[in-house]
Amino acid sequence: MPSSQSPNDPLDQGNSAPLKRAMSTRHLVMLSLGGAIGTGLFLGSGEVIAQTGPVGAIISYFLGGLIAYLVMLCLGELAVHMPVSGSFGEYSTRYIGPATGYMITWVYWLTWTATLGTEFTAAALLMQEWFPHVSMWIWTLIFAAIVFTLNISSTRMFAESEFWLALVKVVTVIGFILLGLLAIFGIIHYNSQPSAPLFNNLVSHGWFPKGVFPIFATMLIVNFAFSGTELIGVAAGETENPAKNVPKAINASIWRLLIFFVGTIIVISALLPYEQAGLSSNSVSSSPFVTVFKYIGIPYAEDIIRFVIITALLSAANSGLYAASRMMWSLSEKKQLPTVFAKLTKSGTPIIAIIVTMFGAVPGLLSEQFAPETIFKNLLGVAAFTMVIVWTAICVCQFNFRRQWYKSGHTKEELKFAAPLFPITPILGFIFCVITCISMAVDPQMLPGFYSCLGFITLCYISHFFLYRNKTN
Question: Which residues cross the membrane (predicted)?
Answer without folding.
Answer: 28-46, 58-80, 130-152, 164-191, 211-233, 254-274, 304-324, 344-366, 378-401, 421-442, 448-468
